[in-house]
Amino acid sequence: MTNKHLQIAHIEYSMNTKSLDIFTIGCNGSCKGCCNPEIKNWDITGINIEDAIKKIKILNKEFDKIIDRIIIVGGDPVDAYKKYPLDLKELLNEIKSNVKKPIFLFTRHDFWNIPKDILDRVDYVKTGEYKPELTTDNNICYGIKLATENQIIWKKNSDNSWS
What we know:
Elements: E1 7-14, E2 19-24, E3 47-48, H1 49-62, E4 69-73, H2 77-83, H3 85-98, E5 103-106, H4 116-119, E6 124-127, E7 140-141, E8 144-145, E9 152-155
Parallel strand pairs: 2-4, 4-5, 5-6
Antiparallel strand pairs: 1-2, 1-3, 6-9, 7-8
Helix pairs in contact: 1-3, 2-3
């Protein structure tokens, strides 16, 4: 049975990044050493968007003082958008209007291949596929330790340009 809507695998607080991490189900990539291979499969049943949004609001309210940011990760949220664009836009819109914290989107895709609909709804984008041969301990960007040298975080500027 195939899901007809985007599913969320898990929502958790990360002490390392002071973030509320939201894991989308599904990925079309094949990164060596994938950090979340168990949620690449599109047919996994997780939390639907409506329930995920309720949980995000509750966790944000309970842990408001220790959550600095929201991170959307996966699977791959860009692949999730391509399969379920309305669902990911709804999730991002709800977070943007209710949580009032910067939204980071983590993807393996190149920045220039991220749909404008996503870029309009997030504040930061981590790009770059995980490549075990490029593992590093000193790639820190906006307070987040990135796993490999090829990864970068892009920031949306006040004029909606990216740097």
